[in-house]
Amino acid sequence: MGTKRGRGPKANRASSGVRLVAQGAGIVKRTQQSPFDPAGSDEVDYHVREIKAERLNGAIPQWLIGWEGLSDKEDTWEPIEHLVGHEQDISAFRERRKLESAKEEVEAAAKKKARQVASPSKESAL
């Protein structure tokens, strides 16, 4: 009984990243997967315009980032390691969100109190 020998592990399968072969020199180039992926972006520099939202992807926190010069359709969810140097922006976003939440709670309580004043209870009508 003989064993078959292949040309290496997964030699004919495509890798997990998207790969394009450049014409001519046989140089392999990857397409850029995100603004932080260095492939094909030697000249482009992306800057955070605003942090719009926060979520947990599993146990990993991510932030929805609006990029300068790009439309809202091109916003991306980024993990903390892609936002090095923006710790103050993240803290400011969290503080702003906390203040907005507190403001909404105060407004909800005021509306509830206004409804109670506007419609007296049945006991006071007796």
TrEMBL record:
Stretches assigned to the Chromo domain: 46-105
InterPro entries listed in its UniProt record: Chromo-like_dom_sf, Chromo/chromo_shadow_dom, Chromo_domain
Coiled coil: 92-119
Biased composition (Basic residues): 1-10
Gene3D superfamilies: 2.40.50.40
Keywords for this protein: Coiled coil
Residue segments, region Disordered: 1-41
Protein name: Chromo domain-containing protein
